[in-house]
TrEMBL record:
It comes from the Eukaryota. Coiled coil: none annotated. This is Deacetylase sirtuin-type domain-containing protein. GO terms for cellular component: mitochondrial matrix. The active site is at 155 (proton acceptor). Zn(2+) binds at residues 163, 166, 214, 217. Transmembrane segments: none annotated. It comes from Brachionus calyciflorus. Keywords: Metal-binding, NAD, Transferase, Zinc.
Length: 308
């Protein structure tokens, strides 16, 4: 119990330290939106009475969280690293050990990030009745922190953890305490950051780390409630998004390259329903040829100019 109290007292200090650390600018190069862009986007939003919003990592880069694919600044363009695969995590104890060691080190910084203008605007639009539903590919829960309620986190959230062998669940903050209790003498730090709350650690750094075990069944397959690469999105989540889309009269995709099929499928469904599509994103997207309106600019520079 004393260890938990000590960690709880230390956490605010860790958060303050991480806030002051200098970091890379993860927003890619962009052009200012033109007057015509703003006018067209204003008209698109104004016409909609029940807007469906689809968002990706591009709305969170302004909070300091990198994305995967942006030119020069995305993880895939800066490094040769790739996220852990679902089968790796489920089938290999060493991979689970590596994952949780890195995730544990990254969590104080990752969990300290706060909503930016984009998250706050979407929350405001929801309160004003403009947004009927919002589907995000992000697992950072910044939209939840901003107050969004009509929300489906398509790929889950980093803020919840579940045991894959029993029905035990806990918050990610509680998971941090659990790991701390099971690794009271392990102390590794890193200033690195990745989109999936990950950092790079050496074999030497993790050799003494103990993989956290479930307090209920004692197995070590505790996993964030995140859809890892190679896994499938739950059918009920897919059906919920499809049902909500059918009740909307326009779709806005913001801050997403729409490369992942789970997002692209939503665009295809909108076209089948003859729902107009607007895309707001820096750079090319997979669905540019499906868009009725495409604006190549920073999300907040456009969203902040919209009134209705």
């Amino acid at each position: 119990m004393q260890t938990i109290k000590q960690f709880q007292k230390a956490k605010p200090l860790l958060v303050n330290l991480t806030k002051n650390l200098s970091s890379l600018n993860f927003v890619p190069e962009y052009c200012e939106p033109s007057k015509n862009d703003i006018e067209n986007f204003q008209l698109f939003v104004k016409k909609s009475k029940n807007l469906f919003v689809l968002t990706g990592a591009g709305i969170s880069t302004e909070s300091g969280i990198p994305d995967y694919r942006s030119e020069k600044v995305g993880l895939y363009n800066r490094t040769d690293r790739r996220p852990i695969q679902h089968s790796e995590f489920m089938n290999h104890a060493q991979r689970r050990k590596l994952y949780w060691a890195r995730n544990y080190v990254s969590w104080p910084r990752f969990s300290s990030f706060r909503p930016n203008t984009n998250h706050r605007i979407f929350s405001q639009w929801e309160r004003q009745g403009k947004v009927l539903h919002h589907v995000t590919q992000n697992v950072d829960s910044l939209l939840v922190k901003a107050g969004c309620v009509r929300l489906t986190e398509l790929h889950g959230t980093s803020y919840k953890v579940k045991c894959m062998d029993c029905d035990f669940r806990l918050s990610r903050d509680s998971m941090q305490l659990l790991i701390k209790l099971q690794n009271s003498f392990w102390n590794v730090t890193s200033n690195e950051l990745a989109p999936d709350n990950d950092v790079q650690l050496t074999d030497e750094q993790i050799k003494d780390f103990k993989t956290p075990v479930c307090p209920k069944c004692k197995n070590d397959r505790l996993k964030p409630e995140v859809v890892f690469f190679g896994d499938s999105i739950p059918k009920q989540t897919v059906e919920c998004a499809k049902e909500k889309l059918s009740k909307c009269d326009a779709l806005l995709a913001a801050g997403t390259s729409i490369e992942v099929f789970s997002a692209y499928r939503i665009i295809l469904q909108a076209k089948e329903l003859e729902i107009p599509v607007a895309i707001l994103n820096i750079g090319r997207t997979r669905a540019d040829d499906k868009a009725d309106l495409k604006i190549n600019s920073l999300c907040s520079q456009v969203l902040s100019k919209i009134t209705f």
